[in-house]
């Protein structure tokens, strides 16, 4: 057991899907997994393990933002031996070519967060995805004809930004979208030599101001989860 995940040895699979919202973890469990069991409800951060096409899969809520996500990423790796961590969630588009519901495969995660500065005091570490998972995800998306783009994303510590124009510099350099947790996932995965990938669904656009309805989010979220499960 760890401080935030009270699972026994063997209760968590080597492959873990990581939505931010614990209720999304519950939805994934009920919608996609067979013979599921709940191994964690500490602080309401639900975690489940079940099977998908005969393979053991876990789903763990991890909250919002780098500090919360880092706790769950670290404990899954350090205490439970997770080998494949797949972040599944939403993001805001920074490019006009991205439509609501499109899927983004994060090849790399730029960030305004300072968590790596303590380790790389006078340098800048580039957090990148596992090529193995990235390649599988791209191949499956093309096979299923799911609209997607692969590229650089931005991990931000700020959800409500006083300066909405700040993101334009990132867009100018080709960054596709903004979210809040992927860069620390890729950094920890690199340190511990495991596989990690962030698969994101565009839920709103900082370019056009469009926003998905709750119903639209649910249907496009299902496409993303199917993609994540079929690359494990």
Describe the overall structure.
By secondary structure, this protein is α/β, with parallel strands linked by helices. The chain has a single domain, classed as Rossmann fold (3-Layer(aba) Sandwich). Helices cover 30% and strands 28% of the residues. It is built from 6 helices and 9 strands. The protein has a 5-stranded mixed β-barrel. The radius of gyration is 17 Å and the shape is globular. The two termini are 25 Å apart. The model has no long low-confidence stretch (mean pLDDT 94). Keywords: Glycosyltransferase, Transferase. It holds the Pfam family PNP_UDP_1. Its EC number is 2.4.2.3. Residues 16-221 form the Nucleoside phosphorylase domain. This is Uridine phosphorylase.
Keyword list:
232 residues, alpha/beta, Rossmann fold, EC 2.4.2.3, glycosyltransferase
Summarize the model shown.
This is Uridine phosphorylase. This protein has 232 residues and is α/β, with parallel strands linked by helices. The chain has helices spanning 22-32, 66-78, 131-143, 168-172, 182-192, 214-229, and strands at 15-18, 34-40, 47-52, 55-60, 84-93, 103-111, 148-155, 177-179, 195-205.
């Amino acid at each position: 057991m760890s401080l935030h995940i009270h699972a026994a040895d063997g209760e968590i699979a080597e492959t873990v899907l990581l939505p931010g919202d614990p209720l999304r973890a519950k939805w994934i469990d009920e919608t996609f997994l067979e013979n599921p069991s709940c191994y964690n409800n500490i602080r309401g951060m639900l975690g489940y393990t079940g099977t998908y096409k005969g393979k053991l899969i876990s789903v763990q809520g991890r909250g919002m933002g780098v500090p919360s996500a880092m706790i769950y990423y670290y404990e899954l790796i350090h205490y439970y031996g997770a080998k494949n961590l797949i972040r599944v969630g939403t993001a805001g588009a920074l490019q006009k070519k991205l439509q609501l519901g499109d899927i983004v495969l994060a090849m790399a995660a730029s960030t305004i967060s300072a968590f790596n500065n303590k380790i790389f005091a006078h340098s800048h570490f580039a957090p990148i995805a596992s090529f193995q998972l990235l390649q599988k995800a791209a191949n499956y998306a093309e096979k299923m004809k799911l609209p997607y783009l692969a590229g650089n994303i931005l991990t931000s510590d700020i959800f409500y930004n006083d300066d909405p124009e700040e993101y334009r510099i990132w867009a100018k350099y080709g960054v596709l979208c903004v979210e809040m947790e992927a860069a620390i996932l890729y950094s920890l995965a690199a340190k511990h030599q495991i596989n990690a990938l962030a698969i994101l669904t565009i839920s709103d656009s900082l370019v056009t101001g469009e926003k998905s309805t709750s119903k639209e989010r649910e249907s496009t979220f299902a496409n993303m989860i199917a993609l994540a499960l079929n690359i494990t």
